[in-house]
C-alpha cells in the first residue's frame, strides 16, 4: 500500500482526542435527591453494562471516522505491477508537435488546439507531486529542466505554431538525453503529433528504461496547395528592363487547383496577376515579368489563397537592380578595341582596361568579369588574387598569348583552376562544334544553326582539363577545345585556346563574338541569394560596403542584433533561431539602411503525408494511447497509480459518522 499524499498521515494524531474524552469524562453529574432509591437499584444495575457498551461503540466509531477520513485525504493506492518505481525517479516527457502541419483541421477543429487539450488532460491525470519534461519543435533551452504541473500547463498553453521542423529521431534523442541528465530510473514519453512522413526516418528506441506512448491526431483530408519556391531567372537585375521571376506551385490536396489567382507584389503594391490551374499531385511552373525603377532594395512577394494550411501560401524575395555590370580587361602589352566596342553596345556594361603591372587588387572583387588578355606571365600575387576571386563566385576569361615570356607561371596558374596547357599547334583549323544548350548561349540560337563559315584559327594551344568539372563549349573539327570552362569553388574559369589577334583567330569578326562577350559577365554560378530559409541554423550573406560587424535586422517593431563576419565585401551572418516569422527585413548599420533580406518558412511541412501509427508503434516499439479523454485519463491513472482506495476510505468515514449518530439517538 502506498499513499499519494503521505503527509496527511500526521493527522492520525487526532485519534487521541476521542480517546481522551472517553478516558476523562468531563461531563458534570447533577445530584438528584430521591426519598427512596430501592426502586431504582434494579434499573441501574440493568443499564450500567449497556451504557459502557454504548460508550465503547461511540469511541470506536469516532476513532474509525478520523482514521478513514485521514486515509481518504492521503489517497492510498496499490501500484500496478508495471510501475513500481517511485514518482520522484520516474520521468514523464511530453512532446507537443507545433509544426505548421498542425494547423490542419478535422471535425473537432484545429489539430494544435486538440493537441493542447490532450496534453493538459495527460498532465492532469498525474498526481500533484509528479514532475514533467516538456518539449516542442522549438527545442527551447528554458525547458531543459523538470517542470511542476502548473509550469508545464503554462508551457502547453503558450505553445504556438512554429517554423521549426524536427525528425522523430531528433525528438527521441533530445528526450533521452534529458532523462539521462536527470538520472531517472525510468521514463514514459508521450508524443502528441500528426506524425508527418517528413519526420522520418523512423527511430528505434534502444533504451530499456523508456516507454513511448503515441497520441496520433489526423486531419480530415489531405489538402494543401503552396508556392514551392521562387527565384530570379537572371543573377543580375537591370533597372527599367523586364526582369523575370520563376515560380513553382505544388498541389498536394485531393482536389484540383482550378483557375486560381497568383499575385506578385512589389513593396506591397500589386504589379502582376496570373490565373493558374494545378492538378492534384502535380507541380507547375510560371514566370512573372517585373521592372525595378532604381537600384534601391525592394521587397517582392508572390502569393496564392489556400486553406487551412497558409504558412506556405506566400514567398518573399529581396531584389536590387544593378546600375551596371562592371567588366575589366587586364592587358599585358597587347590591347584590342574589340572588347570596348562590344560592351559599348549596351550601356548596362561598364568596361575598363588596366595594365597587368598596375592592378589595384581591391578593385577585382567589384568586377562581374575579368578578362585576362594574353598575359606574358602571371605573378604569384596575381595568381592568388585571381583564385580568391574565383572562389567567391567570380568569372575569369583567359586568352592565351601566342608568345608568352614566362610560360611556367602561366601553366602553374592554369593547373590551380583545373587546366593543363600543352603545346602550341601551328595548324590552320576551323571550329566544328558548338554546345548550343550551354547557358553561355541562352537565347542566342532560336534554331540549331548549320554552323557554316565558323571561326578559323592558324595556331592554338592544347587545353587539357585536369578536373572532371569542365565543359567543352566550342570545339575544333578535330574535337580539341576552342572554348572551355572549368568550375573552381563558386566561380567559373573560361579559356580560349587561341589568341584573339586577327593574325591568329577570326572570332572577333564573327557574329558569335558579341553574344559570347555580353553573356559571359552574367554567367555567375551562384548569384547573390534573393531569399533564405528560416530554421534552427538560419544563415545569410549579402554584399556590403560597410565594415560594421554588428547589424540590425528589422521588420516593423521587431528588431534583432546580428553579429556578422565581413570578407571580400560580403557579410556572413547566422540568425541562431532569432527570427521566427517569414518576410522581408531591413538590414541597418546604425540608422543607415544598407540592404534587405527575405526569409521564408521551410516547405518540409507542406507535403501532407503521414506515418501509420501502427507501423511506428512496431518499429519504436511504442503503445498507442486512446484519444477519448475519459478513457485516456483512466488509462494514464491506471498505468501510473494502480488501484486507488480513497473513495472507499471516504465512504467508510461517512458510514462511521452515521453509525455514531445512530448510537447516540437510538441506543438507550
Q: Could you give the distance between the termini?
A: 40 Å
Q: Sketch the major β-sheet.
A: 9 strands, mixed
Tally of separate domains: 5
Mean pLDDT: 84
- Number of beta strands: 35
Strand coverage percent: 25-35%
- Assembly state: single chain
Low-confidence stretches: none
List the helices and strands and how they pair.
Blueprint: E1 2-3, H1 16-23, H2 38-74, E2 76-78, E3 90-96, E4 105-106, E5 109-110, H3 111-124, E6 133-136, H4 149-158, H5 168-181, E7 186-193, E8 210-216, E9 225-232, E10 243-251, E11 257-266, E12 269-278, E13 283-290, E14 297-303, E15 314-320, E16 325-331, H6 337-343, E17 349-355, E18 369-373, H7 380-391, E19 395-399, H8 407-416, E20 419-425, E21 429-434, E22 456-457, E23 460-465, E24 470-476, E25 481-488, E26 491-496, H9 513-519, E27 532-533, E28 539-543, E29 550-555, E30 558-567, E31 570-574, E32 583-589, E33 592-600, H10 613-619, E34 623-624, H11 629-641, E35 643-644, H12 646-666
Parallel strand pairs: 3-6, 3-7, 7-8, 8-34, 16-17, 16-18, 18-19, 19-26, 27-33
Antiparallel strand pairs: 1-2, 2-35, 4-5, 9-10, 10-13, 11-12, 11-14, 14-15, 20-23, 21-22, 21-24, 24-25, 25-26, 28-31, 29-30, 29-32, 30-31, 32-33
What does this structure look like?
With 668 residues, the chain is of the alpha/beta class. The chain contains twelve helices and 35 strands. It is elongated.
Features:
single chain; Rossmann fold; 5 domains; Immunoglobulin-like; seven-stranded mixed sheet; nine-stranded mixed sheet; alpha/beta; 35 strands; 668 residues
Amino acid at each position: 500500500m502506498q499513499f499519494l499524499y503521505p503527509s496527511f498521515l500526521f493527522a492520525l494524531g487526532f485519534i487521541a482526542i476521542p480517546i481522551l474524552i472517553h478516558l476523562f469524562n468531563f461531563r458534570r453529574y447533577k445530584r438528584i435527591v430521591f426519598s427512596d432509591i430501592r426502586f431504582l437499584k434494579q434499573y441501574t444495575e440493568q443499564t450500567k453494562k449497556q451504557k459502557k457498551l454504548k460508550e465503547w461503540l461511540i469511541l470506536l466509531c469516532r476513532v474509525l471516522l478520523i482514521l478513514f477520513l485521514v486515509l481518504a485525504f492521503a489517497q492510498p493506492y496499490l501500484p500496478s505491477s508495471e510501475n513500481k518505481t517511485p514518482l520522484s525517479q520516474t520521468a514523464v516527457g511530453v512532446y507537443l508537435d507545433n509544426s505548421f502541419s498542425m494547423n490542419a483541421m478535422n471535425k473537432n477543429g484545429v489539430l494544435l488546439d486538440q493537441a493542447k487539450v490532450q496534453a493538459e488532460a495527460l498532465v492532469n491525470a498525474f498526481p500533484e507531486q509528479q514532475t514533467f519534461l516538456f518539449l516542442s519543435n522549438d527545442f527551447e533551452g528554458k525547458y531543459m529542466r523538470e517542470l511542476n504541473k502548473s509550469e508545464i500547463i503554462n508551457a502547453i498553453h503558450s505553445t504556438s505554431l512554429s517554423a521549426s521542423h524536427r525528425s522523430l529521431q531528433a525528438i527521441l534523442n533530445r528526450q533521452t538525453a534529458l532523462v539521462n541528465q536527470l538520472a531517472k530510473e525510468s521514463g514514459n514519453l508521450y508524443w502528441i503529433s500528426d506524425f508527418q512522413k517528413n519526420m522520418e526516418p523512423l527511430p528505434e528506441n534502444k533504451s530499456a528504461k523508456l516507454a513511448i506512448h503515441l497520441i496520433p491526431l489526423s486531419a480530415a483530408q489531405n489538402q494543401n496547395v503552396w508556392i514551392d519556391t521562387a527565384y530570379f531567372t537572371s543573377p543580375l537585375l537591370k533597372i527599367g528592363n523586364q526582369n523575370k521571376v520563376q515560380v513553382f506551385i505544388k498541389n498536394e490536396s485531393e482536389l484540383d487547383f482550378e483557375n486560381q489567382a497568383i499575385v506578385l507584389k512589389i513593396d506591397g503594391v500589386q504589379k502582376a496577376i496570373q490565373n493558374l490551374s494545378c492538378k492534384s499531385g502535380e507541380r507547375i511552373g510560371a514566370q512573372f515579368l517585373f521592372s525595378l525603377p532604381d537600384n534601391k532594395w525592394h521587397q517582392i512577394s508572390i502569393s496564392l489563397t489556400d486553406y487551412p494550411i497558409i504558412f506556405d501560401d506566400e514567398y518573399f524575395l529581396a531584389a536590387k537592380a544593378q546600375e551596371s555590370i562592371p567588366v575589366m580587361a587586364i592587358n599585358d602589352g597587347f590591347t584590342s578595341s574589340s572588347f570596348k566596342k562590344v560592351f559599348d553596345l549596351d550601356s548596362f556594361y561598364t568596361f575598363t582596361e588596366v595594365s597587368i603591372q598596375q592592378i589595384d587588387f581591391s578593385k577585382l572583387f567589384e568586377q562581374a568579369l575579368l578578362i585576362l588578355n594574353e598575359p606574358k606571365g602571371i605573378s604569384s600575387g596575381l595568381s592568388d588574387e585571381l583564385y580568391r576571386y574565383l572562389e567567391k563566385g567570380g568569372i575569369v576569361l583567359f586568352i592565351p598569348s601566342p608568345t608568352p615570356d614566362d610560360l611556367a607561371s602561366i601553366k602553374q596558374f592554369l593547373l590551380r583552376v583545373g587546366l593543363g596547357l600543352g603545346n602550341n599547334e601551328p595548324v590552320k583549323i576551323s571550329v566544328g562544334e558548338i554546345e548550343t544548350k550551354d547557358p553561355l548561349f541562352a537565347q542566342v540560337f532560336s534554331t540549331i544553326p548549320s554552323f557554316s563559315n565558323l571561326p578559323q584559327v592558324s595556331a592554338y594551344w592544347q587545353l587539357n582539363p585536369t578536373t572532371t568539372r569542365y565543359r567543352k563549349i566550342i570545339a575544333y573539327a578535330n574535337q580539341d577545345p576552342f572554348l572551355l570552362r572549368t568550375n573552381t569553388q563558386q566561380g567559373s574559369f573560361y579559356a580560349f585556346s587561341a589568341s584573339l589577334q586577327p593574325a591568329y583567330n577570326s572570332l572577333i569578326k564573327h557574329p558569335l563574338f558579341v553574344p559570347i562577350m555580353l553573356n559571359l559577365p552574367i554567367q555567375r554560378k551562384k548569384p547573390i541569394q534573393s531569399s533564405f530559409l528560416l530554421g534552427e541554423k538560419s544563415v545569410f550573406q549579402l554584399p556590403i560596403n560597410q565594415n560594421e560587424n554588428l547589424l540590425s535586422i528589422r521588420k516593423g517593431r521587431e528588431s534583432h542584433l546580428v553579429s556578422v563576419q565581413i570578407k571580400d565585401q560580403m557579410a556572413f551572418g547566422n540568425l541562431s533561431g532569432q527570427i521566427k516569422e517569414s518576410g522581408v527585413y531591413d538590414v541597418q548599420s546604425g540608422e543607415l539602411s544598407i540592404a534587405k533580406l527575405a526569409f521564408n518558412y521551410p516547405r518540409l511541412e507542406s507535403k501532407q503525408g503521414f506515418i501509420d501509427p501502427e507501423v511506428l508503434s512496431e518499429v519504436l516499439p511504442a503503445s498507442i494511447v486512446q484519444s477519448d479523454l475519459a478513457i485516456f485519463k483512466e488509462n494514464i491513472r491506471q498505468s501510473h497509480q494502480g488501484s486507488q482506495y480513497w473513495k472507499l476510505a471516504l465512504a467508510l468515514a461517512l458510514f462511521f459518522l452515521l453509525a455514531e449518530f445512530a448510537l447516540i439517538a437510538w441506543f438507550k
